[in-house]
Write a structure and sequence with these properties.
This protein has about 450 residues and is mostly helical. The protein contains 16 helices and no strands. The longest helix has about 40 residues. Keywords: Amino-acid transport, Cell membrane, Membrane, Transmembrane, Transmembrane helix, Transport.
Length: about 450
């Protein structure tokens, strides 16, 4: 199946004002570009940006934040949460601004911006591996989250039923994605994303509301959950990764912005930024109450998923877990779409496979099956959060945008912009180096007692 050339970008105003002839692309190349998921549709509104970003951020991460607080303590926990919110909002603003910094051109993908900042080859090698680790890592963790939440729903609703392995619940969750993964582009999953965003706000409210209703547990203890010095240190480092995981929207922000129409008079950065601000308000409304109230109520006895700690009222906890399932269905698709774009780009442009339904069906099905298999094999929820959060999320979220900003805009040395970016870079590098250590230790400890596929 071949793709017929569609109308050029110049005739799709106000969708995109990037002239095809500028980079020498043929009509066939342009047709392929218009077929790929990221470039296929450019008619999104600003509110698409809002709920896509909410769906991308508020997910598995928010449920692990009370646990992170129990590893950090009140002072360090609140400081890390607030600093992360401020730093990641700043770096997200930078990415929105850099999306179309060059007149007549849009950087629709994270790696395209990296290539402009660092060079064609170096930019690709710097950005693509990190972005893939983030997006594939999120998809794996969301497979685990979806399976865990389905299991919790089943066990809550039917206490007397036969116990079913987590493996089967992950497979049930994955079955939905074998279907949804065939939706072609970001705008085609906007309904799923909107439902997911509403669910994230709803179950976050249930999580902290039920915690308030339950009140402090008897003899609540706010000391760090580990009792040994090594345990406290590794727990602290792992918690940093968990917080980093919670702020992950940067990895798909350029791809989301690519769906918004843009002209020189009305650049996409204005509606995109409006959506980002709304999204970050929602993030704050979800993250801070869940983190602080959850830790206040349960102290260092809170589980790595706050909804597991809560057990009553049963109907409300069952509802919240089903909301989590719906939300991570949308989140999985948001993070999978740029991966689909990369896979299909390689298959069509490099390996010269004909673009079409057959290619999409096979490639995306194989990808979903891969993430399901890894999730079934390594379902260590909190360890996965902290490991991936530190190893990959810190670079792409906390400091890589700052490095690109310094490389492209070259602010005056010792100016406010220069200082701000270097502070973010230093903090981000420390996070990248330290956080995976705690997460890896957590995974190793749980792996010692875990039986595969049980």
């Amino acid at each position: 199946m071949s793709v017929q050339p569609s109308s050029s970008m110049e005739t799709q105003a106000p969708g995109n004002y990037s002239p095809p002839k500028q980079d020498g692309r043929s009509a066939q190349d342009q047709a392929i570009e218009n077929w790929l998921p990221i470039n296929a549709s450019r008619n999104a509104k600003w509110w698409y940006s809002a709920f896509h970003n909410v769906t991308a951020m508020v997910g598995a991460g928010v449920l692990g934040l009370p646990y992170a607080m129990s590893e950090l303590g009140w002072g360090a926990g609140v400081t890390v949460l607030v600093l992360s919110w401020i730093i990641t909002l700043y770096t997200l603003w930078q990415m929105v601004e850099m999306h179309e910094m060059v007149p007549g051109r849009r950087f629709d993908r994270y790696h395209e911006l990296g290539q402009y900042a660092f060079g064609e080859k170096l930019g690709l090698w710097i950005v693509v591996p990190q972005q893939l680790i983030v997006e594939v890592g999120v998809n794996i963790v969301y497979m685990v989250t979806g399976g865990n939440s389905l299991k919790k729903f089943h066990d809550t609703v039917c206490e007397d039923c036969k116990k079913i392995k987590l493996t089967y619940f992950i497979m049930i969750f994955a079955s939905v994605h074998f279907v949804l993964s065939q939706l072609p582009n970001f705008n085609s999953i906007s309904g799923v994303s909107l439902a997911a965003a509403v669910m994230s706000l709803s179950y976050s409210t249930i999580a902290w509301g039920a915690s308030v209703d339950k009140g402090k547990v008897e003899n609540v203890d706010y000391d760090l959950r580990a009792t040994t010095t090594p345990g406290k240190v590794f727990g602290f480092l792992g918690a940093l990764g968990t917080v980093a995981f919670a702020y992950a929207g940067h990895n798909v922000v350029l791809e989301i912005q690519a769906t918004i129409p843009s002209t020189p008079e009305k650049p996409s950065k204005k509606p995109m930024w409006r959506g980002v601000v709304v999204a970050y308000i929602v993030v704050a409304v979800c993250y801070f109450p869940v983190s602080l109230v959850g830790y206040w109520a349960f102290g260092n006895t809170v589980d790595d998923d706050i909804l597991i700690t809560l057990s009553k009222p049963k109907w409300l906890i069952a509802l919240a877990n089903m909301m989590v399932v719906i939300h991570v269905i949308g989140s999985y698709q948001i993070y999978a779409m740029p991966v689909f774009d990369m896979i299909e780009t390689v298959l069509v442009k490099r390996l010269r496979f004909p673009p079409g339904l057959t290619l999409r069906l096979i490639a995306r099905t194989v990808y979903v099956a891969f993430t399901m298999f890894v999730a079934i094999t390594f379902p260590f929820f909190d360890g996965l959060l902290s490991f991936f959060g530190g190893f990959a999320f810190a670079p792409t979220t906390y400091f890589l945008p700052c490095i690109m900003w310094l490389a492209i805009y070259k602010p005056k040395r010792f100016s406010l912009s220069w200082f701000t970016n270097w502070i973010c870079i230093v903090l981000g590098v420390l996070l990248m180096v330290l956080a995976p250590i705690g997460g890896l230790r957590n995974i190793i400890l749980k792996a010692n007692t875990y039986k595969f596929y049980q």
